[in-house]
């Protein structure tokens, strides 16, 4: 399980690095919101992988809380961007 966990974490880190490069390049607020949402999804994935690797069920509760906050933040910012575009 540790080899698979290490490979999965490595893939998440590579995806996060590519997203951060894209974040630095793009200037539109909508693009940045999507990138930050994707980074939070990667964070939740990392927490879930950590929970699977350690067998700690509490980390699944943390992952659910982070996912809920990420969803709420994304919806809030999307509504803000939509109102500004009018």
The total strand number stands at: 0
Number of domains: 1
Mean pLDDT: 92
Poorly predicted runs are none
Instruction: Kindly report how far apart the N and C termini lie.
Output: 51 Å
Structural class: mainly alpha
User: How do the SSEs run, as a string of H and E?
Assistant: HHH
Rg (C-alpha, Å): 15 Å
Query: Treating each run of at least 4 consecutive H or I residues as one helix, how many helices?
Result: 3
Helix content range: over 70%
Main sheet overview: none
Shape category: flat
How much β-strand is present in the residues?
Answer: under 5%
Please give a structural write-up:
The protein has 86 residues and is mainly alpha-helical. 91% of the residues lie in helices and 0% in strands. The chain has one domain. The longest helix has 28 residues, at 58-85. The radius of gyration is 15 Å and the shape is flat.
């Amino acid at each position: 399980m540790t080899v698979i966990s290490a490979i999965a974490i490595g893939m998440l880190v590579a995806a996060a690095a590519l997203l951060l490069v894209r974040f630095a390049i793009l200037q539109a607020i909508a693009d940045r919101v999507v990138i930050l949402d994707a980074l939070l999804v990667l964070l939740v994935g990392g927490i879930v992988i950590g929970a699977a690797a350690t067998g700690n069920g509490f980390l699944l509760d943390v992952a659910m809380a982070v996912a809920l906050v990420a969803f709420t933040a994304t919806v809030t910012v999307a509504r803000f961007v939509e109102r500004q575009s009018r």
